[in-house]
């Protein structure tokens, strides 16, 4: 149940599977793509959106 901390929509087992899938996906990326994703996510949380970053996303 959500009150047990397993998640609002997903149960604990589903979150474990999703977490392992995301980790494996991220682990298999090359270092340049990892760095780009880290910068992009940081961009969203900080609130600054660089024009160059969005140009790279659109081209990709």
Automatic annotation (TrEMBL):
One Pfam family, short name: CemA
Q: What is its main location?
A: membrane
Q: Which GO terms describe its biological process?
A: proton transmembrane transport
Please state where this protein is localized. Membrane
Question: Would I find Membrane among this entry's keywords?
Answer: yes
Q: Which UniProt keywords apply?
A: Hydrogen ion transport, Ion transport, Membrane, Transmembrane, Transmembrane helix, Transport
| Annotated membrane topology | Multi-pass membrane protein
From which domain of life does this come? Answer: Eukaryota
Q: Which GO CC annotations does the UniProt entry carry?
A: membrane
PANTHER family on file: CHLOROPLAST ENVELOPE MEMBRANE PROTEIN (PTHR33650:SF2), CHLOROPLAST ENVELOPE MEMBRANE PROTEIN-RELATED (PTHR33650)
Sequence similarity: Belongs to the CemA family.
Per its record, how is this protein called by name? Chloroplast envelope membrane protein
């Amino acid at each position: 149940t959500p009150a047990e901390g397993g998640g609002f929509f997903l149960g604990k087992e589903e979150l474990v599977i999703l977490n392992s899938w995301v980790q494996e996906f991220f682990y298999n990326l090359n270092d340049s793509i990892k760095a780009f994703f880290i910068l992009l996510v940081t961009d969203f949380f900080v609130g600054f959106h660089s024009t160059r970053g969005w140009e790279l996303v659109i081209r990709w």
